[in-house]
Write a structure and sequence with these properties.
signal; about 120 residues; mainly alpha; elongated; 5 helices
Length: about 120
Amino acid sequence: MKKSIAAASVITLLFSFSASAKPGQAEMEAAALMAFNAAEMCHNQHGLYLSAAEAHRNGHTDQKIKDVSGASPGSAAEAAINRALSDANTGSNTSDQMYDQCMKKSRDEVYRLIEGGKAA
């Protein structure tokens, strides 16, 4: 539910910026697009986390899960999978915390773009 609300908020933000775009508001349009893409990325990372945790619960080895993921070394996808496997091995679940951290970082980047006129 929280993720649906976040996605709806981002779409509303995107629409409001694009509907009222005036010359000189390129930063606002870029921020809206960046917010939409960031929300999608965070949602995808959350899905990877949940899929990796489920595969672990179904008895697949950590290495097999990593191998079939196709995640690039050092990528956010790899980090989400590693976090899921680490959590699964300790019996914890930090998927919502990971999602919230991702969205906070994304919001901070969008605000920086709006206020500074450039992406960090």
